[in-house]
Description:
single chain, mainly alpha, MgtE N-terminal fold, CBS-domain, Tetracycline Repressor, domain 2, 3 domains, three-stranded mixed sheet, 23 helices
Amino acid sequence: MNRLNEEARVEYFNTIFKALKNRDKKTFLEYFLELHPTDQVELFEALYKDKRPMFYEYLSATEFADIFQGLDIESQKEVIFELDKNYVAEMFNYMQSDDIADFLGEINEPHAKTILNAMDKEEADEVIELMSYPPESAGSLMTKEFIAINASETVSDVMDLLRKKGPDAETIYYLYVADSKDKLVGVVSLRDLIVAPLTEIIENLMSTQVVSVEANQDQEEVAKLIKDYDLLAAPVTTSTNELIGIVTVDDVMDVLEEEATEDFDDFTASKGATDVNITSFSAAKKRSPWIITLMFFGLITAGVIGQFEETLEEIVILAVFIPLIMDSAGNTGTQSLAVMVRSLATGSFERKGLLHTVKREFGTGLMLGLICAVVLMIVIPFLYEGGIVLAAIVGVSLFLTLSVATIIGAVVPVAINKLKLDPAIASGPFITTVNDILGLLIYFSIATALIDYLPK
């Protein structure tokens, strides 16, 4: 099923909407079931709520399962209460166990138990197993819908098995080989099966060098492993190497998006508040701790300026350059922070080491500071009284500030990472505020030392 281009999709949608309006079930099914699942989800989300009951009436529970899996969690919570309980049970029996576990983990426990009790016992047991693993682990991420084969089977045997069980499996591009005790011993690709003689034994085809993950392994590590090895799926095992599930690349993409969102939340000091579905009150509640903390840091900044009140009263022109020093320090520090957080996330930091990365950032700060200082020392004498001395104070202050700011931005996330915390919590606003304080201290210290050389 190919995804339609924009023009064809609009035409298709209009035909389907018209069929719903005219209660033309035959035309509706003919057109709707030809759509790509992504387009089916988009069309469903475009429906008015009063049209949804007709939608549920025309589609079987198994047909609607793919649509339900494609909805975001908030839409799923809304839709579930619009469905008949028998319809829900049948739909969940058809869905992938990992998708069911994800949904049930987001709703209240009594409702989750009701759904599990209505499902087939075998399907429900698989979901319960997935929900028993720690959140954000390989076990909670994996699916139980996979095909395991035996090393003694022939290619012909396996092809027959694929015809029977393939439609229900999450993926069949990799087939994992297990022994009589369900221990993972090898892997065979679908390509290997297709080109091999039907009488060939699997043991002769399989690779024994299998890249696998343990059930309790962190999902971010799993995502990195699948990315590094360019896998479509990875087997999940127990600590004793028993094969219990697989993690597929589509789940990994969700993990990467989730982790990127978390890092962005931390980086901007708005953890949990970037979701547009939450209320203004909830967003303010989540953002307020950092804002209040930074407000107190702002008082420190004000205190620094207050300490040099006499210098400012004597040379008022110095106040003009306070925003320049603060903004430049904050921006440069945030850039270094972003570089370091990214290198920690991708693993390049481990390859290069702390000294190399810090030297690189410090060198960058020196060059940025030198460029900015030279420009200011040329421009300031033409725009402000104070001439070369004022230009030198601002230029040297900016040079030192940018050099220090890059070090702060590079070292702080590394220190946080050493504490086994997410380095992204060294948020941009935090680094900006710290560098503002240091920048002002440098600026006013130099200005106070050279105040006698400035025109009053």
